[in-house]
## 1
Amino acid sequence: MSRLDQIIEKAKKYQMSAQEKEEQRRSFAYGNAKIENDSITKDMIAKAAQAKAV
């Protein structure tokens, strides 16, 4: 098994924490929103996520 295969197998078993999932969700939202609207900021995404959580 190559080193790359070993890394891939390890990644398949990795469980993200709740904080990592939230950071990934926000990053995904920012990236997709930024494509459509260049004025979107990370702060805007963070505020929207906080408002949704309440």
## 2
Amino acid sequence: MNINLICLPFAGGSAAVYRDWVDFVAPYINVIPLEYAGRGKRFIEPLYENFESCIEDLYNIVIKHIENNENFALFGHSMGAHIAYELTLKLKTDNVIPKHLFISSRVPPHLSHINYSSLTKEQFLLKLEKMGGTQKEFFKNKELIDIYLPIIRNDFRILEEYLITNHTVRSDGVMCNTSGFFGKEENIFEEMQEWKQYIDKEYNVFKMQGNHFYLNIDKENLINLINLILSD
């Protein structure tokens, strides 16, 4: 049975981060990376005003990929994990339930604390560099910074605003089996376990090799796990 694996990038990321997953997934999995507005093929589109407009936009795209009742799963990394979670709840109101939800390297909303909006440009770039996942050449290239920094900062802004207004455990739980992934260097095992409060079905956590961007380091093992989970 074929299944669409709909993938949500991290803050500042684009659909391109998932482009080589097709080389690793099982034959029955169709990888569908979603592109956020304002980057990649959607570069000319305006950035999201808020998290709600982001969810509404991506919801309309997801619906098109499952309009013929295709089986599907959602995978979201970092900011993408919150987006995948919110999309799952929005789809639930239509009685549309994913086969599986994959939450990657993001603790649940009630434990999330970020405060990047008040940082200066230099402070933000320093935080971004320490976080990893961005090529070192980026920080040396003024032209790239001028193009992409507003995109990255906007993503962090809407995420920060979302977390401020969603800082309690929701009562409407996710109605599909869910898996959490994180890099062992993040040291967030206990925090990832807290997603159980948001899930009404089975929930398991997997520790991967690497840091917050373990999916670049331990990609093959990650996708092997996804293949196994979706084969049930």
## 3
Amino acid sequence: YDYVCSESMRSLNYLSMKYNLCVGNGILTCENIDQAYNRSHVDKGNKGGSAAKAALALVKIKKNFRI
């Protein structure tokens, strides 16, 4: 679990730096099915929806600044 979490972040950071990209992270790092449900369910935490909204906000910023 800890290895997968840290390597996922390390790899995303690497891609961001290598290709000069803004990379969002919507990976749920859950220790069990209850955590996954509470973080992903629309009526609970809905972390996936939050990650998607953040990505769309970054697209809008990029368009506004024409970068």
## 4
Amino acid sequence: MKRTKIFCTVGPASESASTLEAMIRSGMNVARLNFSHGEHAWHKKAIRTIRSLSKKLNEPVAVLADLQGPKIRVGVLPERGIELKNGATVTLPVTYPALYKDVKKGDRILIEDGIMETTYVSGARGKMTVKVVNGGTVFSHKGMNFPDSTLKVGALTAKDKADAAFAVKEGVDWIALSFVTSPNDVRMLRRLTKGSGVKIMVKIEKHEALDGFEDILEEADGVMVARGDLGVETPAEEVPIRQKEMIGLCRLAGKPVVVATKPA
């Protein structure tokens, strides 16, 4: 039995029974369902197809429900987007209304996986004013990272709670918790899944999670080193070092660890 496992994301391009069967025959061990996309009806059908094929082929395949988490994004902009020119001061709408309470003047705010860099100037409910350091064209709903700030938004949104309840009902094996910052985030999800036997995999993608990693690991059943967001939240050259440290700690704890996504 190979110790290294293969995780595959199942989406519209791979939802057919024939494609899923080929993936299982090729070595898929875990089917990841991304709850950032798709309705419950779609996920339900995918889970049942995977379970049926797993039984047919006599190949164990775990199902992991990956929760969206509280990703903070740029709000609605004109369809053509807004050009951010270096040195300019710009006001943008944001999806986290209380952002202005958690960010200090001068904190870096990175947009679209760090392609654009700004610094915080001021804000009010649902909007922020920033100075552009490295510009580009920003469009609606682009993700943002806050490497200098500690945000008070919780790791579980109302959508995540509904998705977790659905995942438990459908009998998934794992739930992946996004944007974890503290052990309390894990405990909150654990209360929602109590008695189900579903295991919790924490995604390490925030700088706060690095600082409290050992405490988070103690509460979790497994770890996913999400190098994409982590490479934006922390200096890119530190990611391989921290990745190796976390893998070592997981092995000492006897807990599975997954290395996922390419560094930003």
